[in-house]
Amino acid sequence: MAQQLQTTTRATGALGKIAWTAAAAVPLAFLAIFFVWPVGAIITRGFVQDGSLSLAIFGEVLGETRTWRIVAQTLWMAVAGTLGSVILGIPGAYILYRCRFPGRGILRGIATVPFVLPTVVVGVAFRALLADRGPLGFLGLDGTTTAVILAMIFFNYSIVVRQVGTLWASLDPRMPEAARSLGASPLRAFRTVTLPQLGPAIASAASLVFLYCSTAFGIVITLGQPGYGTLETEIYLQTRVFLNLPGAAVLSILQFIIVLIAVVVSNRARRGTETSLKLGEAKDARLGRGDLWPAVVTFVTIATLIIAPLLALVLRSLQRGGEWSLANYALLTTSGSGFSGGATVIQALEHSLKIALDATVIALVIAVPLALVLSRRTRSRRFQRAQRLIDGAVMLPLGVSAVTVGFGFIVSLQATVPQLAMSGLLVPLAQAVVALPLVVRSLVPVLRAIDPRLREAAATLGASPSRILLTVDGPFLARGLGLAAGFAFAVSLGEFGATSFLARPDYVTLPVLIVRLLSRPGADNYGMALAAAVLLAAVTALVMTVCEKLRPRGAGEVTGW
């Protein structure tokens, strides 16, 4: 009997290894085909000329002064956006996650809104705020680098607030209190006790913000950055306007190196954050006089940097010729002036919804087995190393420019498998690749919250690996799928970089159409772009609100998504 039980256990263990190998292999194969191959094709374009290995194009591109000015501007804008987000986000994290006051939940929700908005909407909102006829038009910031940096801070503020705030809420308050009792000032207690504990979360958030700022294509395009843009906008111009594919490939390699460094830093800092979060929950304190300055910074930031652009967008969309009107919304069923046919805004929204639904399904099918593999706690060092490698591979699409992904799809898949391009599947596949890291990141914390002893108890009672997966992991996974689906759908709905390359002229998405409307002269086109941006923001917010209701308490907070 004992021998039969031992044989059964070995067979079960062998089947389990095969199952886990397959769970990792299928998603990795997806990434290899739809991410590594396209990006690799871009890299190859930079090294291979006329069928032979050559570095001549590298010398040409890297020898141009324009290239280094673009690299410098990309890094400068990313650093400025990161510093602004961190400096403003740390007080916000303290006030919104450590202090208790009426309306805190509402302010948390408002602070979270920018991250789920499409970048095109963010750009249009700041144009509405800073344009000549906008509320802050007198500042003269329309079309400047400052406007782009402010939009970057708007978009990434919530990352710092949520990631740092979640850790801050879990810190033991007795340590800074002990420092205060020994004579340390509040500032010194924060600098010597609290700040070192928050270090991993701040580093992780900053690296993610830098990554997003360095690939903020939609924001830069819609705000009309003059002169030298960013690496992403230059890749777009070299590909679409100048048809210089080798030069664009070299720029893509430069950007890939930059974001790869950011991904490595983010992964290391995030592991430190997850370790620190094992400290338990602290009680919130009432908002007091000592919290005056962080409270002022937080309330002013939310009012001027978040609410003002969104409010300006809505109000400008309701104006026509200086008067209140719904004319801009009435035009949404037309193609706009200056167009010879083409999709209307309503048709483009329908296209976006269908494509986003397809991309969400694809992303979830790939992300669920990946999340199960990455969330498994094991003593095997080999398995842990494999988890770290897979985790890094999953994060890469988050860091690699969506423009590079779309460009790579054209160079590799569209050229090799034209039937795939004709079928219309390239757009949802590219959007699924872009959304995949966020989906995995929202599922892994939920699955890591499962007590390993539950699985061990089920195995002791004779449950098979598949039954354990169904009865123990299944309920947790089902609770986390709502938020994961919301992220995938919101990201796909607002994706612009890759879609601008891959969308068929007769099947454009709403973000692509909004940028086209902004590029056309005329009050009708600009008014339609404003109204379309409001519509896209409303649909995205509605989707995320519904999915957020399905989120289990505390899930998705570890990484700050």
TrEMBL record:
Superkingdom field: Bacteria
Ranges of residues in domain ABC transmembrane type-1: 71-266, 349-547
GO biological process: transmembrane transport
Topological category with respect to the lipid bilayer: Multi-pass membrane protein
Stretches assigned to coiled coil: none
Assigned keywords, A-Z: Cell inner membrane, Cell membrane, Membrane, Transmembrane, Transmembrane helix, Transport
Any Pfam family matching the protein: BPD_transp_1
Membrane-spanning residues: 20-43, 75-97, 109-130, 136-157, 198-221, 241-265, 292-315, 355-374, 394-413, 425-444, 476-503, 526-547
GO cellular component, one term: plasma membrane
InterPro entries associated with the record: MetI-like, MetI-like_sf
Compartment list: Cell inner membrane; Cell membrane
SUPFAM superfamilies, alphabetized: MetI-like
CDD domains linked to this entry: TM_PBP2
Family per record: Belongs to the binding-protein-dependent transport system permease family.
Protein name: Iron ABC transporter permease
Organism annotation: Gulosibacter chungangensis
